[in-house]
Amino acid sequence: MKVLLINPPNCGRSIPEERYGIDSLKLILRGEPLSLEVLAGNLDEHEVRIVDLKAEPDAFQETLTDFSPHVVGITGVTCEANTMLRLASTTKATVKAIVVVGGVHASNDPHFFNREDIDYIVLGLGKLSFKELLAALESEDRADTIPGIAKTNPQNELAFIQRRYSPDDLVEEKPPRYDLVNQYRDHYVLKTFGFRIGFVSSTFGCPHRCSFCCIEHMAGGRYLTHSPETVIRDIGLLGDIPVIRLVDANSFGNIAHARALCERIQKTGIRKNFVVDVRSDAVVRHADLFVEWKKAGLRSVIVGFEEIDDGKLNEMDKVNTVAINSEAIRIFHDIGITVVGDFIISPDYDESQFEAMSAYIEQSHIDLPMFSVLTPLPGTSLYESMKERIINHDLDFYTLTNAVIPTKMEEKAFYENYANLMKSGHAGAKL
Hints:
The chain is α/β, with parallel strands linked by helices.
């Protein structure tokens, strides 16, 4: 079968830009579509193409016509969900293809995609289940009995069998098809810092249950790890790319695995810079491990600090404290690892809370602070607790830079304070 995999274009909308002319907060997503490369890696018997509309926004219609695929797979996060529907509609109007959607939003809110122009929904990690779907389509077997695959039925409630994810779903023997995006490789550059970057997965899922996070449904609550040998293989497939981003929700969720991978990188003699996601409590408990990772090439860590108030952290089910966060920053700086700190700005902030956040950033010397707006994403426990407060249900605005519940401050003042915080935090930032 001919299979076309689609990464949507940049499409999130911005309230501060559209209403107040503040364009510094608009979300721009960059980086290779690793999820599609991973899917393609397990489709040896099919003819597969990947079109990255973030890199080549006008390529969709022409590729549909020229390639004439049997199956079109579309991925996307929540702010891309409406665009995924439009891509599905264009597909049905252009070619006779089966349309399949997957990714973060499909896994957290599959009922959103129970629409006429979509045939199947892949929930969670789809490397194995998508292959099983294609096999069923080829043999004309029923596909709705495959765990993790939902057949749409717009006239009725969506029904599907939950998949119990296991290491088998990683299909580790099949590497990502990095070659399918070679034509876009020059686009996968962190322009602000001037280096090329490649994506590798070392784990999947997360062992924690933060209320705002949409990762849980991607692996059914499981936390799966790739073998060190698999990670080393995938790094090698990226050739001379100097910076490797481990695209994991939490690269150090299993300390024994993180230690084994570090040792394997050192023994292999790989000379790369690594950027990884970690929790602050992991470095406080295992500072020695991060010393070793620094030797292995760890350049930067992305840490979800989220808040500067223990009560707020508790409300988020973060199971962490500000004191631990501050200690982790000190340890990272002592080791010589750059800290990218993620913080969540609540629409309930007043001016004093913006000022307190700014003071904390300055005092803690975080190298690159990043700020998102607390957003109740469908499928999360935060959404369930806040859905009655939501006033903006247009998913185009669910970019994590828009307030979709009412702001406590006058709205324009909220976004002005938010933009000022972002600007001051990024002055002289490094990665």
